[in-house]
Amino acid sequence: GIGVADRHPLSLFITEALNAAGLNAHLIPSADDMKWSKMLTNLPANASAAILDMTAAEVFAHPGLFRLEMRMLRETLAVMRANCLHVVDLPHVPVRALALGTRLPEFVVHPLMLKAVGGGRGSKMPSFHIDLQSGRGRSEVDWLNGAVVRFGEKTGVPTPVNKLLTETLLALTRAEIPLTEFSRQPEKLLSLI
Asked: What is the pTM of this model?
């Protein structure tokens, strides 16, 4: 499906045209809510998987990394609240359920997240990993986890996990530290937080 921000005179026309083409478009009241909700779905096991050269399933199977991922999501949600941004469901993506999962006990949410995130991607590596391994020297991490850090700074919300993931992945991307520094070494990354 496709989300279309419902704040433009052409929004309804565009949505109808997309639906006529069979693309399952939905009007979303706020563009910012939609963008941040989409970002929330892109964050899990993206930066950490790239840094550690591990799949999403491997990241979520490791208890310490699972907790790190949940802290990262909680920081993001706190930044969203501080900036008056709301979690909205996207077409066929229950983003509000993901947000709710961050408040549930670990023994409840861990198997659910392992199945949803780890199982959903299969053996496909996340986009940050693909960018890092390409050697192009660029990463989207600054636009995702980095945005959480910047918006957190503006509103006084601490974001240590997002900051660690952003800075570490950018250092790897810029070849300031070797790719092997954290490869398959979760405890080494966890020790930094």
From this structure: 0.92
